[in-house]
Specification:
Elements (H helix, E strand, L loop, with lengths): L5 E5 L4 H11 L3 E5 L12 E4 L1 H9 L3 H7 L1 E3 L1 E6 L3 E5 L8 E5 H15 L2 E3 L4 E6 L4 E5 L4 E4 L1 E4 L6 H6 L7 E12 L9 E6 L4 E6 L5 E8 L5 H6 L2 H12 L5 H6 L7 E8 L7 E2 L2 E3 L2 H4 L8 H18 L3 H30 L3 H18 L2 H4 L1 H4 L17
Parallel strand pairs: 1-2, 1-12, 2-8, 5-14, 12-19
Antiparallel strand pairs: 3-7, 4-7, 5-6, 9-10, 10-11, 13-16, 13-17, 14-15, 15-16, 18-19
Helix pairs in contact: 1-4, 1-10, 2-3, 2-10, 10-11
Length: 401
């Protein structure tokens, strides 16, 4: 049993409330410090939780609430141009993807954390941290501080904790694309449980029919780097005009962007992925979620991996006597898996935003890409079949790591 009694969790997105809930389950008192002033701030758009993410949420008792708020997607299809449309084989015995609005997911996770006895403090932006022998103190922008046995950086892709652990740590890499999401007042002839990944004439997009009517779509627009603030400075009408030019000739992409009210457009901004992070922990500080392994949205696994890592970190802190050993075991358990999934997503990114050379050979590459997608045990099996045995001691995982 570890000597850890208290934890300061920095960031109340997805990994934050999950690691705090799992720590409470392990007997550690955890407090979440979130920079946003309120809990639903900025939580627009939707995301797809994979079966492995849902299974990990079961451990902290949050799966049911998330499922209740989500729409199931049990079939996937791929479209290349207007003529080629393929049903992608799925895994026969795993559940569907669950599409959930970010704000509903955050609410479910925070409600669950509160039920576990986790306290969340808003308006607390971490700016620095100090370690003494057996404690670590988080310093916040508002001049306050919090001291705990361990400090967990669940503060997302632009993590401040990552820089505190290693000032030379790499930052997120731009994938070459901006993200947008919209809801079209139009329904293409596909069934309600199918998500289609479409490689249009100029850019990639995906879509599925909403349970409540209309079709929700996400666009990955090849673009120069643009911060979220810069992207949101451009009026939605202007972005919609760009999207109509880009997708206008695609079926059904053209119809989807023409039939979307610009007022409801979600401008997500630059899409990022994290390169491998050399140092996951230092002293009493450690990273979890996008702060250490954002695999890019192409994986469809960012949130699910963040949830898994949160559970595994809590499990290691529960079972190892020393913090250093717990962190090392956690990294051994998680690094190979998250880096493998990130590398696969990076390949998909290259197909979505091909450079000039790749664009020329894309017609040759696409059949190979499709052939790979036809083998789901290889492409999605390892990601989606992963399950965590919470009750098994993490010390026993050492032999397998
Ligand atoms: C367009 C897009 C689509 C996506 N689609 C999917 C999908 O379909 N499926 C999927 O699994 N994943 C998807 N993802 C990825 C997913 O959103 C992330 O992997 C997930 O949000 C990571 O959770 P996290 O808790 O690590 O980080 P975040 O959700 O980013 O949470 C970090 C939190 O830390 C807070 N914070 C930041 N800095 C500080 C600080 N200094 N002090 C205190 N608090 C701080 C932030 O305000 C935030 O609340 C998508 C991402 C994008 C951009």
């Amino acid at each position: 049993m570890a000597t850890v009694r208290t934890a300061a969790v920095i960031g109340g997105g997805i990994a934050g409330p999950v690691v705090a809930s799992a720590l409470r389950k392990a007997g550690v008192e955890a407090t979440v410090y979130e920079s946003h002033p309120t809990r639903s701030d900025g939580a627009g758009g939707t995301l797809a939780l994979a079966p492995n993410g849902l299974a990990a949420l079961e451990i902290v008792g949050a799966a049911e609430a998330v499922e209740a708020a989500a729409q199931p997607i049990s079939r996937q299809a791929m479209a290349v141009g207007d003529s080629k449309h393929f049903a992608l084989p799925g895994l026969p015995d795993v559940g569907p993807l669950r599409i959930v609005h970010r704000s509903d997911l955050y609410r479910a996770l925070h409600d669950r954390a509160a039920a576990h006895g986790v306290r969340t403090e808003y308006g607390k932006r971490l700016v620095d941290a100090r370690e003494s022998g057996d404690a670590v103190t988080a310093l916040f922008e508002d001049g306050t501080s919090a001291t705990a046995d361990v400090l967990i950086g669940a503060d997302g892709v632009h993590s401040a904790v990552r820089r505190l652990i290693d000032p030379a740590a790499p930052g997120p890499r731009f994938t070459g694309m901006l993200g947008f999401e919209g809801l079209a007042d139009f329904e293409p002839p596909v069934d309600r449980e199918t998500m289609t990944f479409a490689f249009g004439k100029r850019a990639y997009y995906l879509y599925w029919r909403e349970a409540t009517g209309g079709t929700r779509w996400g666009a990955n627009l090849p673009h120069r780097p643009l911060s979220l603030t810069e992207a949101r400075r451009t009026p939605n009408e202007e972005w919609m005009a760009t999207l109509r030019t880009t997708y206008g000739e695609d079926t059904p992409g053209g119809e989807l962007v023409r039939r979307t009210d610009p007022a409801g457009l979600q401008v997500v901004g630059a899409l990022h992925m994290m390169p491998p992070v050399p140092h996951w922990h230092r002293g009493r500080m450690v990273l979890v979620g996008d702060a250490v392994h954002a695999p890019s949205n192409s994986s469809g696994q960012g949130a699910s991996l963040a949830i898994e890592s949160a559970i595994q970190l809590a499990r290691c802190l529960r079972d190892f006597d020393r913090v250093r050993e717990a962190y090392a075991a956690y990294e051994r358990l998680r690094r190979p898996r998250v880096e493998r999934i990130a590398a696969m997503a990076a390949k998909t990114n290259r197909a979505k935003a091909p450079g000039p050379v790749a664009q020329k050979i894309m017609p040759l590459l696409m059949p190979l890409f499709i052939k790979a997608a036809m083998n789901p045990e290889k492409t999605i099996g390892p990601a989606q079949r992963y399950r965590i045995d919470w009750d098994a001691p993490a010390t026993a995982d050492r032999a397998r790591a």
